[in-house]
Amino acid sequence: MKKLLTTIGLLCTVISAQSFAESGYTLDPKLSNVTFATIKKQFVVEPASIKPSSGGLTEDGKFSIVLDLKSISTGVSIRDQRLNELYFESMNFPEVKISGSVEPSLLTGEPQNTTIAAEVTLHGVTKTIDFPVIVVPSDGFVMVNSTSTIIVNGADFGISTDNLNKLSATVGGLALSDKVPLNFNLMFDK
């Protein structure tokens, strides 16, 4: 059953990517990234990144992005594994999905600063987050970058304090924050 659901999900992603390519822009995973940092002992900041796996942006401004939690990279493989298994429970919740829309006028003309409200689904919970961004349209692509750091709280998405405690136990019980600063750079190609 799990393989069937994975196959159906992959098929939907491929179909979705094709429909975006036909009517707009497709996310370029090689030129896109999402960065965040874990914070321990209130002062130790450990940078991390996650690669978007797919996404698109239609000419009428609708967008959808999928992040694969198993692509988390902190530079330390055991930390990546522990974040996936203990904190995010990526075996049950393998993806982060982000969707919403922007004004179509932002996709042409000069670069513009704006705030985009997006639906974010993480750990089975969907919340609306306002993202301050700069949208840079050009001939053949649209670039969207965060203009300030967004603070994301794991508890807002139903990630249990127990998960944080399990992760903390692997580093000697050090205090870990369930809030992370987040930034992103997204490239959509025509």
TrEMBL record:
Residues 1-21 form the signal peptide. The keyword Membrane does not apply. Residues 24-189 form the Lipid/polyisoprenoid-binding YceI-like domain. SUPFAM superfamilies: YceI-like (SSF101874). It comes from the Bacteria. InterPro entries: Lipid/polyisoprenoid-bd_YceI (IPR007372), TTHA0802/YceI-like_sf (IPR036761). Keywords: Signal. PANTHER family: PROTEIN YCEI. This is Lipid/polyisoprenoid-binding YceI-like domain-containing protein. It comes from Vibrio chagasii.
